[in-house]
Amino acid sequence: MRRALVALLAALALPAHGAPVTGEDARAAIREATEAAGVSGVPVLSSNRGFPPCAGALDATPMAGDWRAVRLGCAGAWSRVIRLDGAPGAVRAATPGAAQPDTRALILARSLARGTILAPGDLVLGEVPAAGQGDLLRDPAEAVGRRLRSNLGAGQALLPRHLEHDWAVTAGAPVTIVARHGAASIEAAGIALENGQIGQEIRAENANSGEIVHVRVAGPNKVAVRPNIR
User: Fold this and answer.
1) Mean pLDDT of each 10-residue bin along the chain, 230 residues long
2) Is position 230 within any domain?
3) Which residues face 224 on adjacent strands?
């Protein structure tokens, strides 16, 4: 009897738990947070995934201001990190007294969904941080008419990986290699060693010398040698 009474008192002392949180519950909480913040992004999360019970409300916040991952939490009881596909990265404030180099690049004029075919009005040329962006696109001709591979938020810099493949050069195909020095330019016949989209960096072989050079795709079957890099 004494043991039964102790067990009953212990059970009564435990806090009440809410219902188990489902993957759909988590998706809804994340969607509410992203819509309130005006950003896009699709949770990389199975609807069948389960989470611990939650007696309170779920909340979702960006990781260090970066919406590519959110922290899904339950009133301090537990938290999980969920990745968002197509969400914008962190907006970093300038460090006082430190120069922040920027560069011109194409950015999204509005939030667009995966599968959207880009139109001229979807893009603007603006200033973005020069560091850590990868292969930035600067020419609208490289993007207009191409289809997005993921959801993108307004103001996000456009990168080649955001677009469906549109090979201007294919591996094994002949290419014209252009090398520029000042106002002078030299052209040579070559063979592409990799597939490449306009603006993408690939390797090519000089057909005459057999030398392997690092080049940037400049147009259909045309590549330009990267300065000071072999």
Assistant:
1) 42 50 86 80 80 84 78 82 72 48 84 89 83 75 86 84 85 93 88 88 93 92 76
2) no
3) 178, 216
